[in-house]
Amino acid sequence: MTTVAHDAPADAARWPDVVAVPRPSRPRDTVTAALVRRALRGLPLRVRLAGSDDLGLGGPVLQVHDPAAFHARIGTGGLVGFGESYMAGEWDAPDLVAALTVLAAHAADLIPAPLQRLRGLWAPRHPHEERNTPDGSRANISRHYDLSNDLFALFLDDTLSYSSAVFRGFPADRDLLAAAQHRKIDRLLDLADVGAGTRLLEIGTGWGELALRAAARGARVTSLTLSAEQRSLALQRVRAAGLEDRVSVELCDYREATGQYDAVVSVEMIEAVGAEFWPVYFRTLDARLAPGGRVALQAITMPHARMLASRDTFTWIHKYVFPGGLIPSTEAIEHTARDHTALRLARRDAFGAHYAETLRLWRERFTERADEVAALGFDETFRRLWTFYLAYSEAGFRSGYLDVQQYLFTKENPAR
């Protein structure tokens, strides 16, 4: 059950766009209210607008406590405003994931087709400073991954893995999450044929679990990260495991990597690269991989048509969670690798239902430990933000709007 309203006002200095309700013109407000009612009326939801009749065909409940503020935010900020309205406590849902899953499943037709075609005129654009240049990437990564190692430890399992696990069955059991994360890692290492003596490059360290597991197989691992907080804890874990001689964790952009490796592994890193730099990313994989080597990638994906429609739009997730991020389509990944590298696609496995369950376990744990999150200095607005982010992501996978893939790319050895 979600919280119905804030216990205390949001901090205006920290959350200016949550505290300040936009003041659209009367015509814009009228048009927005009409469009919102039109969109919600045909959905399998029960939308309760305070002071008005219910909308929708029935289903998960979405309770709008302040319709005027809700419409004002959507009318001026679109999906950014929708998320900020939740952060402000202006709407809630007893089952937030269920309500968001309905919206995600109908994302393509929530906005009338004529307005979709004019998206470039009304949708907010990405800030120039959030381009994923080397400097921009460092700033973007820091805003998310350097929040607090202690925060992530509160809701992740003991492996500190922040990507989709692979379960044996559903519903997933929290006590088996660490084992499911190891299953995911082992599948990637097996795809890349990592074993004793393998020279492995990992792009995106996380908190080091994959590097530790690869080193335990006898590999020599160079792992790259842009997060100082993650690197610090990953190095502590490497030392505690006695694997300093096999694992190097470098604060380094993927574009600055050198050397050649038998295998390259990158887990849910491509989402932070940005479409502008996808060719550079794949050329880097190609350049760093020795002939005869293998690349194993794990990537969140979305339908190609939706990616093309939304790739230039600045969203709530960009503003508050992952600045500069863009989820690719399978077509974008495969075409970029084909057109810019000597890598060849050998295998692709999708397992989106596993990510939905992974996110459910994280979200439930985050909710249970809300007091500990608060004790770390994260206020109620942040906790609503993070709850919305986890639920929003879970809904994406439950609706099929998002998926997750494990890829194997190979590189021929011309000497053979």
TrEMBL record:
Pfam families the UniProt entry points to: CMAS
Enzyme Commission numbers on file: 2.1.1.-
Keywords: Lipid metabolism, Methyltransferase, S-adenosyl-L-methionine, Transferase
InterPro entries reported in the protein's UniProt record: CFA/CMAS, CMAS, SAM-dependent_MTases_sf
Enzyme class: transferase
Presence of the UniProt keyword Methyltransferase in the record: yes
GO MF term set: methyltransferase activity
GO biological process: lipid biosynthetic process; methylation
Similarity comment: Belongs to the CFA/CMAS family.
Protein name: Tuberculostearic acid methyltransferase UfaA1
Source organism of the structure: Streptomyces griseorubiginosus
Lineage per the UniProt record: Bacteria, Bacillati, Actinomycetota, Actinomycetes, Kitasatosporales
Gene from which the chain derives: ufaA1
